[in-house]
């Protein structure tokens, strides 16, 4: 009977949809995806579907992208699209409970989110496969019968307002808003896209419904389903879920020829006063429709040629002249597929902002080179080859991130060819390259300069309406225009030679190793090295990690700052090599943590050992000049000083981390230490850094054991000058909270308030950690629902559990633009009290079983690719005494935990009998504060106004007449 029913459902699904031929011609060559199956479909209502069955996926996920965004807002209701996005989560006719969807997602081990951009809105969720069918049905009703319940309007309007408020001091957002305000008034990009309580409170419920019906039409929607479930099952689920999404009459299309930018912007420099200490120069060209919608991707090729790592490019010239700290060049499509922007973004030094016109000249000299010579065919081949290899040998991603990436890209290409046209250029076109390069001229350029008026010497005389950004617009002189248009080529700016780091051997090395766990390949007085073949991932990738210990890397702010300065010097010297390797799919990072210098390389395996040898060959690094050192100091000082402008929540977290972890240092402490460091101090530090060392090394991926051993010998040959004895190694220490509860109050100049509560839940044991993880899932949903949704205290409301150095902590945090820190803390405690009072109703046995499985899956899902797996194994090797079965032990402990023990642990962890509580209260600035002030009876009698009844009546009549 069941088989017959499934057959009928499948037959019905076939009648309701058609399959679309896949013409992408880009098969995935990673053997890990050999069993993966894909189908492209279109339902009768026009909704397009990309369905992927991947038996090795540990989770299922789905996303819907609607071709409607903030550009579709009615002029009278700015933020309509964004508000609609929020309201769709607030219940449907089929599932009216506004909290049910999120709670179910958590119970089935998933997550959910949505985002609104200019021309599209994306919704997505993930879950385990058991809950996917029911959640997909709930999810699809967002687009079929949303309620737009008036009872939920207030809370979501407040959420959008808090979201808006947390970005008010974000310089990137402020720059975007200035670009909008000064842009073309005839294009909807000019409108206020986010919305706040001022604009959203005016939207009638009926208008919101009508807007949804008008714009959320099935034929303007695309969906992605990704799951380990069989392909036929997914096809049936897709049809059942989305076939009833309604169709609306077609809307008039935007004219792609209408520009976003304006004549007021071109030929001028827009000076913006930033909130943070920063100097930034942004040059942008809005490409015409013929160059935006260009299958040859010639604009992207020009950007690639200009930024490709090498010794003679724009970046190296400007860096050598001391004018920039960083540079990025690319093509941005955040304004829709018809409005691509060619962007050159430069972070300037103090000298660079004084010589802004000279920096701009260098940019135009680099562009002039392309205009003169074009882009060589080998760079076209190189770029296309890298794009194809990166796609076809992609690693498995977590399903949530993967469907979001696919959904965002779906509207930009025909489903037949998707995603080929977005990845590969159709052909090499010297004519199109020349046409694009010729367009990148001074008169078409929009220039933004962010910097203090004291540095730019331009005082702002305008204020942007919504974010309050102060700015000024000044014309570019005819002399500057003439200079930029008549520049000769710069002798040191050249196009790159072929990239030596491009992998040509993408084969998979078969291994004879029988051990699945990492193996110890060496241990001596100079260090210890492990190798993990990780043969479950059959991609040509490797991950190499070195953790360098040295007596110079002590516990303290000064040592931390020295390490950061060394990292700046490292990136500066090796940028040509690291940037070229990065373009070829080999990333490098160097940082300092836990009193160790951590060097990580990851990417295609063939050239990974070569890159590591190139890096090691540069050690010890030549000393920087005094001028270079001063630039490193200034840059780091700026970054650390800007921490005072971070959201109060991040400042609170920075302080709490330093109190819990003995080896963590606050940014404020680092800034103070930086001011004490001299050039001679740094030279001494660098000279002695590798005199005595001990190295923890972890090599993983598509390498042979012989290659791993050879790489280890290379490391020891360079770094093994003299051993750093193990008995002298630093030990990480973690705090045990005293009896409290205690709180620390801090003030900040940043906008907003934050409260962070940490509860010390005791020493680690497997059963206690299991209870904490299951409890953490239930707290995550309940805390968010109570503090963010019901009480409307803030947009960010998070509960998370963590084990730190074998001690358990539970954190609660809220960032608010409406409530005082003390008020938030009291609400936290009230939430915990009520949560425990009704605990067995909130987490009954049936839900406990679901949360157990979700907690197990959360651990499993960390290991979907080599990068994540090797990172975890590296952590286990050096911080968990090489216990590579630790995760399995944790999962077994979760499965074995009795419900009764769980309830008891919850009470011990969270009740007021556990007084090991520390709250960090950060008080910033609020738009309008509501705080009770202390007074006395005597003072009140003096400041109060006393009137007789007849006087009050007369005052009332006068007010009515007004």
Brief descriptors of the model:
single chain; 962 residues; alpha+beta; Cytochrome Bc1 Complex, Chain A, domain 1; 4 domains; seven-stranded mixed beta sheet; 36 helices; 25 strands; 43% helix; 19% strand; disordered N terminus
Give a nutshell description of this structure.
With 962 residues, the chain is α+β, with helices and mostly antiparallel strands. A hairpin with a 6-residue loop joins strand 13 (462-463) and strand 14 (470-475).
Overview of this structure, please?
The protein is of the alpha+beta class. It folds into 4 domains: 2-242, Metalloenzyme, LuxS/M16 peptidase-like (Cytochrome Bc1 Complex, Chain A, domain 1, 2-Layer Sandwich); 268-485, Metalloenzyme, LuxS/M16 peptidase-like (Cytochrome Bc1 Complex, Chain A, domain 1), CATH 3.30.830; 519-728, Metalloenzyme, LuxS/M16 peptidase-like (Cytochrome Bc1 Complex, Chain A, domain 1, 2-Layer Sandwich), CATH 3.30.830; 742-857 and 884-925, Metalloenzyme, LuxS/M16 peptidase-like (Cytochrome Bc1 Complex, Chain A, domain 1). 43% of the residues lie in helices and 19% in strands. The chain contains 36 helices and 25 strands. The strands form 4 sheets. Strands 1-2-3-7-4-6-5 form a 7-stranded mixed β-sheet, sandwiched between helices. Strands 10-11-9-12-8-14-13 form a 7-stranded mixed β-sheet. Strands 15-16-20-17-19-18 form a 6-stranded mixed β-sheet, sandwiched between helices. The radius of gyration is 30 Å and the shape is globular.
């Amino acid at each position: 009977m069941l088989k017959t029913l499934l057959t009928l459902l499948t037959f019905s699904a076939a009648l309701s949809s058609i399959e679309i031929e896949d013409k992408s011609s880009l098969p995935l060559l990673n053997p890990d995806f050999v069993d993966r199956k894909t189908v492209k479909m279109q339902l009768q209502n026009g909704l397009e579907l990309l369905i992927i069955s991947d038996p090795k996926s540990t989770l299922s996920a789905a996303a819907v992208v609607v071709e409607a965004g903030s550009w579709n807002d009615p002029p009278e209701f700015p933020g309509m699209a964004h508000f609609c996005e929020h309201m769709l989560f607030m219940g449907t006719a089929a599932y009216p409970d506004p909290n049910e969807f999120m709670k179910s997602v958590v119970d089935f081990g998933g997550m959910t989110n949505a985002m609104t951009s200019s021309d599209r809105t994306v919704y997505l969720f993930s879950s385990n496969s058991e809950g996917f069918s029911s959640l997909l049905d709930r999810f699809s009703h967002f687009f079929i019968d949303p309620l737009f319940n008036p009872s939920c309007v207030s809370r979501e309007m407040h959420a959008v307002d808090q979201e808006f408020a947390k970005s008010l001091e974000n310089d990137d957002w402020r720059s975007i808003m200035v670009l909008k305000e000064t842009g073309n008034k005839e294009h909807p990009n000019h409108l206020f896209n986010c919305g706040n309580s001022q604009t959203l409170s005016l939207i009638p419920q009926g208008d919101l419904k009508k807007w949804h019906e008008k714009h959320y039409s099935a034929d303007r929607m695309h969906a992605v389903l990704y799951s380990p479930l069989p392909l036929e099952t997914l096809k049936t689920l897709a049809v059942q879920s989305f076939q009833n999404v309604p169709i609306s009459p077609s809307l008039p299309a935007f004219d792609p020829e209408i520009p976003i930018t304006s004549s007021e912007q071109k030929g001028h420099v827009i000076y913006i006063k930033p909130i943070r200490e920063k100097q930034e120069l942004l040059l942008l060209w809005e490409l015409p429709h013929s160059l935006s919608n260009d299958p040859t991707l010639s604009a992207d090729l020009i950007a690639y040629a200009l930024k490709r790592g090498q010794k003679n490019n724009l970046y190296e010239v400007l860096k050598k002249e001391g004018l920039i700290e960083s540079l990025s060049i690319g093509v941005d499509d955040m304004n829709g597929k018809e409005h691509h922007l060619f962007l050159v973004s430069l972070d300037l030094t103090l000298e660079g902002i004084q010589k802004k016109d000279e920096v701009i000249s260098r940019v135009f000299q680099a562009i002039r080179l392309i205009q003169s010579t074009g882009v060589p065919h080998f760079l076209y081949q190189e770029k296309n080859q890298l794009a194809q290899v990166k796609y076809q040998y992609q690693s498995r991603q977590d399903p949530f991130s993967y469907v979001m990436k696919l959904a965002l890209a779906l509207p930009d290409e025909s489903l037949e060819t998707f995603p080929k046209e977005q990845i590969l250029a159709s052909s090499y076109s010297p004519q199109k390259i020349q046409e694009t390069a010729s367009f990148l001229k001074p008169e078409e350029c929009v220039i933004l300069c962010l910097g203090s008026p004291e540095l730019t010497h331009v005082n702002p005389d305008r204020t942007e309406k919504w974010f309050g950004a102060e700015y000024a617009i000044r014309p570019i002189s005819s002399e500057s225009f003439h200079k930029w248009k008549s520049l000769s080529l710069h002798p040191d700016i050249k196009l790159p030679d072929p990239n030596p780091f491009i992998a040509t051997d993408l084969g998979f090395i078969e291994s004879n190793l029988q051990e699945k766990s990492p193996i110890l390949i060496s241990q001596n007085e100079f260090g210890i090295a492990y190798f993990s073949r990780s043969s479950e991932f059959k991609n040509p990738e490797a991950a190499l990690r070195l953790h360098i210990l040295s007596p110079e890397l002590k516990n303290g702010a000064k040592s931390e700052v020295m390490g950061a300065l060394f990292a700046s010097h490292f990136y500066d010297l090796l940028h040509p090599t690291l940037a070229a390797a990065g373009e070829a799919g080999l990333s490098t990072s160097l940082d300092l943590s836990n009193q160790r210098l951590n060097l990580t390389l990851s990417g295609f395996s063939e050239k990974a050992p070569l890159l590591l040898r190139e890096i090691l060959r540069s050690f010890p690094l030549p000393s920087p000049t005094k001028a270079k050192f001063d630039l490193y100091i200034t840059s780091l000082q700026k970054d650390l000083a800007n921490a005072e402008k971070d959201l109060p929540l991040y400042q609170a977290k920075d302080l709490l981390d330093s109190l819990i972890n003995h080896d963590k240092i606050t940014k404020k402490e680092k800034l103070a230490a930086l001011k004490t460091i001299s050039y001679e101090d740094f030279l001494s530090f660098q000279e002695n850094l590798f005199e005595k060392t001990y190295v923890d090394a972890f090599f993983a991926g598509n390498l042979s054991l012989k290659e791993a051993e050879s790489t280890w010998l290379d490391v020891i040959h360079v770094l093994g000058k003299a051993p750093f004895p193990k008995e002298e190694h630093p030990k990480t220490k973690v705090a045990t909270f005293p009896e409290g509860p205690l709180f620390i109050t801090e003030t900040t100049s940043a906008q907003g308030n934050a409260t962070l509560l940490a509860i010390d839940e005791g020493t680690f044991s497997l059963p206690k950690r299991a209870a904490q993880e299951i409890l953490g899932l239930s707290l995550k949903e309940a805390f968010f629902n109570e503090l963010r949704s019901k009480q409307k205290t803030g947009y960010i409301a998070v509960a998370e559990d963590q084990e730190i150095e074998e001690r358990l902590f539970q954190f609660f945090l809220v960032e608010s633009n409406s409530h005082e820190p003390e008020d938030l803390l009291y609400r936290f405690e009230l939430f915990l009290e009520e949560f425990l009072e009704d605990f067995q109703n909130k987490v009954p046995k049936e839900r406990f079983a679901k949360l157990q499985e979700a907690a197990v899956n959360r651990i499993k899902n960390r290991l979907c690719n080599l990068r994540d797996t090797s990172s975890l194994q590296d952590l286990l090797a050096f911080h968990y005494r090489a216990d590579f079965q630790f995760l399995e032990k944790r999962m077994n402990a979760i499965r074995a935990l009795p419900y009764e023990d769980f309830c008891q642990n919850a009470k011990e962890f969270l009740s007021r009998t556990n007084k090991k509580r520390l709250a960090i209260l950060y008080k910033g600035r609020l738009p309008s504060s509501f705080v009770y002030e202390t007074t006395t009876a005597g003072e009140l009698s003096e400041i109060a106004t006393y009137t007789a009844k007849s006087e009050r009546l007369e005052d009332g009549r006068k007010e009515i007449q007004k």
